[in-house]
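Problem: given the chain below (117 residues), write out its structure.
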Amino acid sequence: QVQLVESGGGLVQPGESLKLSCAATGITFDRYAMGWYRQAPGKQREMVTTITSGGSTNYATSVKGRFTISRDNAKKTVYLQMNNLKPEDTAVYYCHAERVAVQRDYWGQGTQVTVSS
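Solution.
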């Protein structure tokens, strides 16, 4: 059974940092592209950042220079370091795993990030 379990969300003030983690089980982790998506109230889910199995990264313009995605294949975990958080970063953050070659993708249950003074 595939599980993606996010952790690390919470309430922070503008300008502060948070680090999210997503631990995967049930997949051959190092063969999957991993990503973080977010959904704010009343808005569509949007891509935040992705990292391929080879380590190439892609970022939404709104987070470039503030957020960093990384992965530890030995721990089957992907991370999202978020610095200089802004109120507009408030959303539920979801972990995503995708392997195009076998047409499989999976979502985590989400973790809430709230940025407010």
